[in-house]
């Protein structure tokens, strides 16, 4: 009896198993492995299917450190909205290989159209190409057309020796060594959206589009992608997402109850209701966003009446009007 009790006591006195504590880097790797093990979709399928959703990945220590202001994600958001693409996610991450690998795998798996910004220059911290290549098990291959265009169109320095093997030439070559799948058509993997730029857009895994972080280049190249993107939209003829703006003199708390009820009522019709304070201004903004323009236009007068405001074409257009005129 005492022997049995002693065994029980020893068993209860043993320390409980401690849960393992994986590092964030290990968790990222495990999560990435799970994503890669998900049902296979080929790169060619990703490259041709209808585009409903999008994600934007901003890569750069300088953004996270406050040195550079990110405007590319805002441009991407406006670009997607104008085309009727549902931008579902924007992330900003460091120039860190493991984070880039995890993020692009996850985004490629989860969204139809993915754009990255930053990290494709000639310096040591420009690791986007090599990280994305590693994410999908691809080699970095010198893209001869990119290199030829670089030599032809680059103007700095004017007397650069392209034939001599030098540290500067090797640095330039890094910008033409692209993640490449040798089993796929190269024309689907490298696009030149602008004829007056040598900078390409590398398309990896069928839907990850690698763009530079310089805003002027980012915007020009993204705009140049439209001809290849529009035919793959649900509504190639035009914008399938619309926004109605309602200017109101009331505070957010004053309209909260009505907007909560309105949101529940119109949600089945695919309409999202938003409320945005405009600090330092007399009027705030209520937004109605959806794909059924006729329905949005039909409920706009009711919304304007209930928030004691008016429908406007551009936010702030009635800021300088007298209060009485603005409320008419």
From TrEMBL:
<feature type="domain" description="MoaB/Mog">
    <location>
        <begin position="55"/>
        <end position="232"/>
    </location>
</feature>
<dbReference type="GO" id="GO:0042726">
    <property type="term" value="P:flavin-containing compound metabolic process"/>
</dbReference>
<dbReference type="Pfam" id="PF24102">
    <property type="entry name" value="FLAD1_M"/>
</dbReference>
<dbReference type="InterPro" id="IPR001453">
    <property type="entry name" value="MoaB/Mog_dom"/>
</dbReference>
<feature type="region of interest" description="Disordered">
    <location>
        <begin position="10"/>
        <end position="29"/>
    </location>
</feature>
<dbReference type="InterPro" id="IPR056596">
    <property type="entry name" value="FLAD1_M"/>
</dbReference>
<dbReference type="GO" id="GO:0047884">
    <property type="term" value="F:FAD diphosphatase activity"/>
</dbReference>
<protein>
    <submittedName>
        <fullName>MoaB/Mog domain-containing protein</fullName>
    </submittedName>
</protein>
<dbReference type="Pfam" id="PF00994">
    <property type="entry name" value="MoCF_biosynth"/>
</dbReference>
<dbReference type="InterPro" id="IPR036425">
    <property type="entry name" value="MoaB/Mog-like_dom_sf"/>
</dbReference>
